[in-house]
């Protein structure tokens, strides 16, 4: 480890704050991090409002407002290495589901007509205006390291920070959530897709075999597979595998439908249609990235409009 401490800034854009809490979740490992890193700016740990020069810049959250864009540019100018930290920064995150609606629909629903959040503070008046759409940070600034996960598990955060401090390449993980799941895929005679609240799923058999849609096989493991291990199907919050992202003919719904139809008596088309109708769930986390949005099969607005008719 270098004797001089590595200077770190972090900034959050449009997000839930969970990624910054995940940094604090390093618990006692935080003490080891602090031996070699000086945290200069971090919304949950320091009161630094400016952007000091830094070696590492962690950016969480997507670009949603004018403020987010300016903050991302400031971070890029002041930090030697930028980490897109968390699914929101890497793929746009769940805010991407907003792409299914127009900017005006969102302003009306959230700011003008909602009985619980009704306010005169329309973005663009006295608070930062909304960008036309949600975008991942690499559409605005150059990114040096991508660390998806919602949030990334503390193990991957520690690995990434340690690698940067030691000047080594961070380990590239290619495993899917299935790799860490103990459920067995087996052929069944299940004839209908079930919603996650329907019935009680066996805890030793793959959700797909039981008729529940689980995105574990198309999702990169950045979490150590907690959901299927605790009885909840994976909704893909860590973002898709590289295979899904980079191969134009592969897509979340087609891959899962193919696998599930082979494991059950449910037809490929039935599963695919169900996933299209619930696209705001199954595509939420990566909808805003061009890698998904530009797939020839991607018609999410159409599917959602039809399902809401
Ligand atoms: S990636 Fe997940 S945990 Fe991190 S800020 Fe976005 S929504 Fe929150
Ligand atoms: S699809 Fe889901 S339940 Fe099945 S093995 Fe993969 S993670 Fe586990
Ligand atoms: S939804 Fe999937 S990717 Fe997200 S934490 Fe659960 S298992 Fe991991």
From TrEMBL:
NADH:ubiquinone oxidoreductase-like 20kDa subunit domain: residues covered: 16-163
Oxidoreductase as UniProt keyword: yes
Keyword Aminoacyl-tRNA synthetase: no
Ranges annotated as spanning the membrane: none
Highest taxon, organism lineage: Bacteria
Pfam families listed in its UniProt record: Oxidored_q6
Keywords: Oxidoreductase
InterPro entries in the record: Hydrogenase_assoc-protein, NADH_UbQ_OxRdtase-like_20kDa
Name assigned to this protein: Methyl viologen-reducing hydrogenase
